[in-house]
Amino acid sequence: MTFGTILMYFLNRRNRKEEALQDSFVTFSSTVVSASKSLLTLLLHKRILLIIPLMAYSGFQQAFVWAEYTKEIVKPLFSEQGFDGAMAVYGAFDAILAD
Length: 99
Fold this sequence. Notes:
single chain, mainly alpha, 78% helix
């Protein structure tokens, strides 16, 4: 998610009317300022603010599965090779079935 946010700064809107070359620093800085304002506006929208607890819950759930659950339940049941395979299968199914 962080990587995607950083990549958003490098997207620029192309306007066919303004094909003239401009100073690259001015264009880059205005793009960064515009993207920052858009991102801040989006983050302060009430629907996004209501989703933040759900994102935090999802993060806590993933942290539990990858840390405590694997250490206490999966690792004692499987050997080192079985442990790696079990977590790979979990990761694959999580990626495929994620909503």
